[in-house]
Structures are given as structure tokens and as C-alpha cells.
Amino acid sequence: MAHRTQFQLLTSRRFLPFFITQFLGAFNDNVYKNALIVMIAFRLVESEANALINLAAGLFILPFFLFSASAGQLADKFDKSRLIRLIKFGEILIGALGVGALYSGSHIFCLAVLFLLGIQSAFFGPVKYAILPQALKRSELVGGNALVEMGTFVGILAGTIVGGLLAGFTGQGEHGLFYLGLIIMGAATFGYLSSRWIPQSPAPTPNLRINPNPITQTSKILSTTAKTPSIFYAIIGISWFWLLGAAYLTQIPSFTKNVLGGDESLVTLLLSAFTIGIALGSMLCERLSDGHIELGLVPLGAAGLTLAGIALSIAGGSFTELQHPTLTAFFSSDGAIAILSCIVLLGIFGGLYIVPLYAMMQDRSPREIRAQIISVNNILNALFMVVSALLGILFLNILDATIPQFFLIIALMNAAVAIFVFTKVPEFAMRLLIWMLSHTMYRVKHQGLERIPAEGPALIVCNHVSYVDALLLAGAVRRPIRFIMYKPIYEIPVLHFIFRTGRAIPICSKSQDPVGYEQAFREIEQGLKNGDLLCIFPEGQLTKDGELQPFKAGIEKILERTPVPVIPMALRGLWGSFFSHKGGHAFNTWPKRFWSRICVVAGTPVEAPEAKAQTLHDEVLELRGKRR
Questions:
Q1: For residue 488, how many other CB atoms are within 10 A of its CB?
Q2: What is the dihedral sign for C-alpha 124, 128, 131, 133?
Q3: Which residue in 178, 430, 585, 627 has its CB near the most CB atoms, within 10 A?
Q4: What pairing do the DSSP bridges indicate for beta strands 596-602 and 442-447?
């Protein structure tokens, strides 16, 4: 079953060593960073501590702007497994410097090491996400990304907790520094050892010339990416998520202390709730998408982030501050479960939102510049996180908004950004409608879909039973389909948006619209020449009695102009469903059956010379069988 796939990856050498390596890297970075921040906060006066803490945050993120572009080029030019080993070996050296810096007590030395860790993370980022499409099958990409996101957030949380706890035991006569050093060096060493088991990942562009200028290189790749709106706006969506996540996570300590009246244990609880939510949402992606890259989950996640953010604002704004800052007092208070639930839901919907976007970016990026595109994504992620900090300063310090009010503002901003992105790339909304249809009114099974060519021009012919046939086929076949469809159906409100977004080709009889008829055939011919997968319902109309009608000769005319393979397909079980004509007219007469179990079946491709209308009719009839 599909939901087992992602966990089976943890038993595979193709994935497990990499997963351990990236988890330990995220953990180790945050052990050192948080230990340093806590030590600074408690050893210095408030004014000096705040300045150094802000400097530390800036020094860790600065390398992403300076080195990500070069890191992306290196990941495209060299074997990624070899690069990971070099990066992880560098982590051992940096870790040793970090331990020395912590023992020295020199904050300047410690901050310099933090900058080096930022450089190491900047070089690891593009390799981390670019290696997945090479190591995994396309059907495993969602599951792999889900595990990586889960591992990253769990590593960040664990490192933050461990670093903070041990930093509290670094006074004279205490052994916190020793244990910090042991953990930092141990995680770095085990990370390097696990990286040695990562299989080879050959370079896609070994002859690439490295451009060391981060500005011109970033501009070049960003310009290339912008030519493919789906990739560009996926990057914008990913970066916005990091802005949103940074806004929530940065404010949780202040929210806990100043709004809830809690202590450090409550901060840890709320951070853990968010991390658990991210893990659950990421894992849920695999089950909800059946192992495919299901973009319909992105709008669902965006809507959930907005609603959960609004709910958190309301719950936080109405919470009565605790008299005693303990977990027991918190759980005994009205609204505690609501706040905790909202934070878990933010994580769950965040996982549903981010995992398909990462998988989409990896899958659709050209193989030869995939790591460079991911490097641009990392730069924009860092930029958006800086903007997140500026938004916090603007609303909380300058405009004097409360933290619950700030949560409400960013939740509403999330809705605005989501609408903007989904307007620019309507495919997200289209996939959501298809996903909802195929997971509510219909239970869809597939058979023989592997016979559909993964690329190149081809033509699907299928029986026509209901007004949603095209949506169900588009949901079943993961390769984009351009539908040739009867113009009146194309123009149905709401469905028209979906068909237009999917670049459907409307057609009607030559007697009804001679000009439109010829225009449709020109579009069909051009689409096949461009390598598109097209689908036609050769009956020319919906069945009124559930039987397969004769196929019209238009199919032969298409193949005469552009000979391509033809894949016969059939929809089983749709007759009598809500959108079919059984029992009267669809939409006007309530049918006997609302819930339908259907099957989408694909037959063996037929070469163009043998693909006559009657032959294809007989093939589809056999595939459909008695079940209509």
C-alpha cells in the first residue's frame, strides 16, 4: 500500500544513510547555535546579550546569501555523494573549533564558528534536496521529502532543547561544556560515517563552468526559473512558508512568557507541538497523495494555515495569564487545549503545504540545473526569513501590536499570498478540485495506467459517461492531459475554469461552427507536435443510455495529420453517478447513487496505422466490460 512506501525507504541504502546524515546535521547546528545563544543571554547584561544574539542570527544566515549560488553549481558539477562526504568532514573540523571556542569563553571566536557552520549549511542545502530525485523513484519523491521535512524539524527541535539544557550547566564546576563538546563531535563524526554509505550520485553537468559571483549567478538562475511559472511560484510558496514558520517560532517564547504567563517548559511544549504537527502533516502527504506529487494538497494546506493562525490569535487573545508558570497550571486553564491544538494544526497544515511544493520543484526542475534552482530557493528562503524578522519588528515594536494580533495579521497575509500564487498558477486550484472530487463522491481505482507513455506525443480515447470524466482521468493520470472536448461542456461554469487551466481544446461539429472546427484541429495537431498527451471522447457526446456509442471519424482525421500512438481507456462504474444522465438529466434529477466506486482502465497502445474508429471502439468496449 502507498502509505508504507515512505517507511520502507528507511530500510533502503538509497535513502537511510542520507536521512541519518541530514538529521544529524540539523541537530548539530542547533545544538551549537542554541547553546551559544543561551550562554550569551545568561552571561552578559541584557543590552549586550541582545546585540550579540541578533548578530549570531545574522551570521548564521549570511552565508546563504554569499555561498548558495556557488553551492548549487558545485552540486550540479560534481558527484553529490562525494560532496556530502566533504561537507560532513568539514563539519568535524568546524565542530572541533566550536568546542574550543566554547571552552575559550570568547564570544567573538564562538560567533566566527557559527558563521562557519552557516557556510557548511549553505553548501549542504542544494545537495540535500537535489540528490532526492536521483536517489528515489518519482513515486517515492513525496514520501522521501516527507521524511526529510520530518527529520529536519525534529532535528532542529532536539538540537534546540539539548543545546539549551546543556548550556544551563556550563558554570564553574559543572560539566555542561564537556557534554556539549561530546555531543557536537559525536554528531559530526556519526554524520560523516553515515555519509560514506550514501550511494554515488553522478553529476548531471560535469562540464559546468563555475560562476563565483553570487549576484550574477543568482540573477541568471532566477531569470531561467521565472520562465517556468510553476517552479518559480513553488519557490515563492516555499519561501513564504519559511517566513510564516519563522514568524510563529520566533514569537513562541515571548508568546509563552508575556501572553500565557508560562515558563521554559511551556515553550518546549509548544515548540514540540509544532514539530509533531509538521511530522504528522508530512507523513499524511504520502497517504493523501497515494505516493504521487499531489498539488491539490497545497491549497488545502494554505487554507488550513490561515484558519489555524486565526484560531490561535483568538485563543491567545482571550487566554487569562497564568498565576503560576507551570505546565500543570497551563493544562488546568480554559483555552489551553485550544492553543495547543492550533499549534499542532499549524504544523500539520504546514506539512501538507510544504512537502508537495518541494517535490514539485525537484520533479519539474531541469536535471542539469536542478541544484542551482534549489540554491536560489535557499537564498529566497533566507531572504523571506529576514523579512519575517522585520515584520515582527514593524508590528510588535513600531506599531505596538500584541502577539495574538500579529498572529492574526500573518494568517491573513498568508491567505493573500496563497490567492496570489494560485492565481498565477491555477494548476494548484485545479488539482484541489480534482483531488476533492476523487476523494469524496468517487472512490477511484486504477488499472494498466503504466501503459501510458511517460513522455512524447500520444492520444487517449475513452468512453464518455458523465460531466466529470475529464476530471477523473486528469486525477488518475499523473502526466498532464489536454482534453479535446465538446464545446458546450467546456463552457459549463466552474468546470470551464478547470478545463481552460488545463489547456483543453473545445470542439463542436463542422456544421455548427466551421471556423472553430478547423481551429480545433490545428490546435490538436500543434499539441501533438509539441509532445503533449491529448485525450478525446470519440463518441462526441455523453451517453444517454449507458451504452458505448459509435466512434466518430474525427479520430482518424487527427491521426492522418499527426500519426501518434493511441491508448484506449475506459471508465467503469460511472453510469448512474451524480453527473451522469441515468434516470433523467444530470443536475436536474437526483440520481439513485451519490457515492460511486469507479475504475480507470488503460489498454495496450495502438499504433496509428491500426487505430481505426471501429477498432478503437471495440478496444474501449472490451476494457469497459459489462460494468458501465
A1: 11
A2: negative
A3: 430
A4: parallel
3-class secondary-structure state, position 213: coil
Backbone angles phi, psi at 600, to 5 degrees: -105, 120
Reported for 164-169, long-range contacts at CB under 8 A and 24+ positions apart, including other chains, are 164/34, 164/35, 164/38, 164/264, 166/31, 166/35, 167/34, 167/35, 167/36, 167/38, 167/39, 167/42, 168/38, 168/42
Q: What's the pLDDT score for residue 588?
A: 45
Do 291 and 5 meet the contact criterion of CB atoms below 8 Å apart? yes
**182/161 Cα distance (integer angstroms):** 16
Distances (CA, A) of 71 to 87, 96, 125, 385: 11, 23, 8, 20
Cell 550569551 locates to 40
CB atoms under 10 Å from CB of 511, counted, come to: 7
Whether residue 536 contacts residue 460, with contact meaning beta carbons closer than 8 Å, is answered with yes
Q: CA 327 from chain center: how many Å?
A: 34
Query: Among residues 454, 291, 365, which one has the least CA distance to residue 131?
Result: 365
When pLDDT is averaged across residues 229-237 and rounded to a whole number, the result is 93
SS3 of 576, please?
coil
State how beta strands 596-602 and 566-572 pair. Answer: antiparallel
Please give the Cα distance from 548 to 552 (Å, whole number).
Answer: 12
Q: Choose among 436, 442, 438, 439: nearest CA to 577.
A: 442
Q: List Cβ neighbours of 568 (8 Å cut-off, separation of 6 or more).
A: 461, 462, 602, 603, 604, 606, 616, 619, 620, 623
pLDDT tens-digit map of 127-161:
999 999 999 988 889 999 999 999 999 999 999 89
User: Residue 534: helix, strand or coil by DSSP?
Assistant: strand
Each residue's pLDDT tens digit, 38-92: 787 666 655 676 677 778 888 889 999 999 999 999 999 999 999 999 999 999 9
> Would you tell me how many other CB atoms lie within 10 Å of the CB of residue 141?
23
Maximum Cα interatomic distance, the chain, rounded to a whole number of Å: 95
- Only one residue has cell 472546427, namely 517
Beta partners for residue 485, in sequence order:
506
The contacts of residue 236 (CB under 8 Å, 6+ apart) are 380, 417, 421
Q: Would you mind telling me the total number of residues written for the chain in this entry?
A: 628
Given a cut of 90, whether residue 94 has pLDDT beyond it is yes
CA angle in degrees (0–180, nearest 5) for 165-59-155 = 40
User: At residue 592, what is the residue type?
Assistant: K
Indicate left, alpha or beta for 573 from its phi (over 0: left) and psi (-120 to 50: alpha): left
User: Percent of the chain having pLDDT more than 90?
Assistant: 56
Q: Residues 6 or more apart from 79 whose CB is under 8 A from it?
A: 200, 201, 202, 203
Q: Which among 338, 334, 331, 341 has a CA at the least distance from the CA of 314? A: 338
Q: How far is CA 453 from each of CA 212, 349, 398, 481, 532, rounded to the nearest angstrom?
A: 41, 34, 58, 12, 11
486 φ/ψ angles, rounded to the nearest 5 degrees = -60, 125
Residue 592: count other Cβ atoms within 10 Å of its Cβ: 9
- Please name which of 287, 352, 342 lies closest in space to residue 316, comparing C-alpha atoms: 342
CB 388 within 8 A of CB 327: no
* Nearest CA-CA partner of 348 in 275, 268, 404: 275
Q: Output the nine-digit C-alpha cell for 501.
A: 487551466
Per the DSSP assignment, residues forming a β-bridge with 536 are: 461, 484
